[in-house]
Each structure stands twice: as structure tokens, then as C-alpha cells.
Amino acid sequence: MSLTDQPVALLTGTNRGTGRSLAQELHRRGYRIVSLNRTVTGEKWLDEQHCDLTDPQQIRDGVARALAPTDRLDVCISNAVDRVLDPIADLRPADWDRSLAVNLTAQLHLTQAVLPALRDTNGLIIFMGSHAGTRYFEGGAAYSATKAALGAFVETLLLEERNNGVRACLVSPGAIANLEGDGDPHKMTPQAAAQAVASMIDGFPRDLLVGEIEIRPATLPTPPITGIDRLLHV
């Protein structure tokens, strides 16, 4: 397969966790991987461009450099995230601003940078959301607020770009064991989450659009509370 014929996937945050597993899975399936990473690993197969997602110019320049060899892009996965888990009373303004910049504002700049190439290939853009966008928790104000807003952004993008041939999808996962050494059996592994997303990319018909897909761990640490007994725990 020539360089120009090989499908291309651009991902953010491939240095570890789910992003790395996504890159590995798509590489195994024949995609050429290009990455935007703040922390660069130096691994050639990741074809990394150093990029701080809080800087719109770095996003635009990173995308341009990543796509320069062929100007082709089939899949874009926005995976990188800033996670601040402080109570509102203690949340530093700088942490709030950085969360907004990485988790939300960067999505606009990344989308605008990749749209022309995705329109040319009738490509797919995937945003990694979170259950935190609909299931709120103490200490999660910055994280949940940005993930909730991301849902509105992706749905609007879907409505605007579907007739231009671009499919947009929000993937909303539950708990993933993203940190090194986390072997919690009640969380999804990054590899499992990556296989699910890659199967959607390669396995769904091109004339079918999945606006949002939710994935969850298969087991819970304690039996779930069901029925009217839920009223005792709200």
C-alpha cells in the first residue's frame, strides 16, 4: 500500500492510557497514525507533533505538519483531556481556565483545522466524552461542565457537517483504568475501550451515522440499587 492510499488517523493524547491504546489498535488495523501530544514519547510510529492544546496556533500548526505528507485524513479522534477534581470552593481560576481551554475550546480549533481534509474523504471525527458529562459528582465541576458542553458541541457539528460528508460522534465511556498500575476489575481497560471505538470506525457502514455511543464497565463493585429503592439514595 502506498503512502497516499493508506488511511490516516490523527489523534490527540497518544502518549499513554486510552489514547495510546486507540493509536495501537488503529495502527494494527492498517492506519498511519499522526499524533498531537504535549508530552512526546519519541516513538516513530506515532508520528508526533508537539502541541499544547491550550494554544490555538499550536493546534493549527500541528495539524498542518501532521497532514503535510499526503494531505489525507480519514479519522480524527480528540482524546486528550485535562482533569481537575477539586471542590468548587477550592478550585483555582487557572485550573478552571485550563480545563475549559483543553477540554472545550481546543475542540473548536482542532475541528476547524481538520474539517477540510475530512470533507475530502467523507471522514469521521470522534470526541472522547465521559459519563461525567451527565452524571455529576462532588469535585467534578470543571470536568463535568466541560464534558457536558462537549456534548452540545458535537451534536451541533453533526447537524452542520453531515451534508458535507463528515460524520461526528461523541463516545461517552464510564470508568477506564487509565492510570498505570490501575488493575481495578470494575473498570474498562484502555485496550477494551480502544477496541470498541476502532470497531465502530471500521465496522459500521459509511452511510450510517452514530451521533453518540456509550460504553460501560461490564461489572459493578456492589450490586446496583434498582426500582423504588433508588429513592433512598438520592
Automatic annotation (TrEMBL):
InterPro entries: NAD(P)-bd_dom_sf, SDR_fam. SUPFAM superfamilies: NAD(P)-binding Rossmann-fold domains (SSF51735). PANTHER family: EG:BACR7A4.14 PROTEIN-RELATED (PTHR43975:SF2), ZGC:101858 (PTHR43975). This is SDR family NAD(P)-dependent oxidoreductase. It comes from Streptomyces decoyicus.
